[in-house]
Amino acid sequence: MNIIEEAIIYATILHQGKTRKFTDTPYILHPLEVAQILSTITEDQELIAAGILHDVVEDTDGTLEEIEKRFGKRVAYFVSSESEDKYPGEDREKTWVKRKEGSIAKLKSCKDIDVEMLWLADKLSNIRSLAGLYSEKGEKLWDLLRMHDPMKQCWYYRTIAETIELNLNKTGAFKEYIKHINSIWPGTFNPEKAKYKKYTEVSIDGCRRLGYGAKGEVYRYNDELVIKVYNDNNTYSDIEREIALSRRAFVLGIPTAISFGIVSVGNRYGAMYELMDSDTVSGLIKKAPGQMDNYAKTMASLAHQIHSINVEDDDFFPDAHERIKEYISEGVAQDDEAVSSKCLTLLNSLPKAATLIHGDFHTGNVFMQKGEPLLIDMDMLSKGHPIIEIADLFSTYVARGEVDQSVVSNYMGFSYETAKKFFLCFLKYYLDTENEKRISEVTDKAMVLSYIRIIRKLHQKPRISEADQRRIESLIEKLRVLTGKIDTLEF
Fold first, then answer.
1. 140, 262, 424, 439: least CB-packed within 10 angstroms?
2. N- to C-terminal Cα distance for the chain?
3. Of 247, 274, 301, which residue constitutes the final position of a domain?
């Protein structure tokens, strides 16, 4: 008896007497369908056996230990990847969102194409049933499910598709999965995704890295092309959204490079840009620190160009003020209510702004081509007061290096001392003043928002170390002093 036959017998016994939702169909037909779907993608017998066994731990008295003993560690690992946390004692309807969020987080962190295949097969089997029921019952279907909100159901199936797309978009199973999602929630995906498409595969071996940021890295691919390689937690939809924002920014008058194609770089997405004879401003400052003042002047002029644009509500740019409020609630508010209240008061005193801000404005995101600046990284475009942009600059060039200067020098490619000088030069040109008191006043306002951001980032860590806690306490004290002497964040 081979492993697949043994898995069929074992799963049939454990699922005996169980039926699929809303039907009298024996439940075992679902894991058998999952195995059949897997067999169209792979010949890996252990993976196909895991497809048969994938619901044993979640829905029967079977255990991972028993599966490992009978079928081996690899099969048990696959089954574990598909098993949700049960939250015993809690209502399964009420735990639906956190169970799904937990399982998706597990999928995203796994980065194993075999696990992605198993997920695709299981969810395709599920959505086949869902699509059939939807065609019979229409919107009444949602009342029968544990999650009654159809858009949350859509979020779950869509997020899985986005997560596995890069590796599995060429399979018939993935194409069918997309078709079913679009049949239940029309317009969720571009119909082209349900057709055969192979992303151009490129390699960055030997390519010079021009810079990196929170979203990914930028490389010089050849004399004419630059490629931005996104971190592996970015989906195809994330890149599509950024390219769409770039196009909108271009129409609004921002000099920006627009990607002409999405490619795959190993297990990550990349976006290609035609940027001949260009380098980032960070790279140029690294090569010629003596020209830093001129580049600060260029960046200040570019910032003015961005901040001179007022956007309409139907442009759908998010409100940066709301982002700062989240930073306060998820950071400062956890440590000092009084300081948090003062920070919120200052933030709320800013007038409602329709001013466009970049959201990630620094020298690593600006290329110089034939003497003209071109912005990239448009995913943080938003509307808000320019002090938020200046605060982000202070974070990048000054605040992040207050404890460890190498954090800034490694990120920017030039020394921390140069970074601090750059910020002050930028502010001098942006404010069009040599008045040190004026520059200092605006810097203090930027500090408030910058320290709010850093405290929140420290709170996001899975474990806050003693050093992190001391840093938080130090920043809270600085905020206490700053909010005690500042009446407004306007300038």
1. 140
2. 78
3. 274
Collapsed DSSP state (helix, strand, coil) of residue 326: helix
| Residues 143 and 94 both lie in one domain | yes
The pLDDT assigned to 196 comes to 64
Residue 241's CATH number:
3.30.200.20
Model confidence, pTM = 0.70
Distance between CA atoms of residues 245 and 306, nearest Å: 14
DSSP string spanning 32-70? Answer: HHHHHHHHTT---HHHHHHHHHTTHHHHSS--HHHHHHH
Which ranges of 111-226 would DSSP assign to H, the alpha helix?
A: 113-137, 150-168, 172-184
- Annotated active-site positions, please? 58-59
For the CA atoms of the chain, what is the radius of gyration?
26
**pLDDT tens string 50-69:** 999 999 988 888 889 999 99
Token readout for 48 is 């196909």
How do beta strands 366-369 and 372-375 pair? antiparallel
d(CA 435, CA 365): 29
If you search the block for the tokens 């010089």, which residue do you land on?
220
Contact 37, 173 (CB under 8 A): yes
Q: Assign 3-state DSSP to the chain and report helix, strand, coil percentages, each to 5.
A: 60, 10, 30
Mean pLDDT score across all residues of the chain? 90
pLDDT at 213 over 80: no
Cα separations (Å) of 469 from 339, 449, 473?
A: 17, 19, 6
Tell me the C-alpha distance between 359 and 381, whole Å: 6
Residue with tokens 């520059």: 439
| pLDDT digit string, tens, across residues 446-490 | 999 999 999 999 999 888 999 999 999 999 999 999 999 999 999
Asked if 351 and 261 sit in the same domain, the reply is no
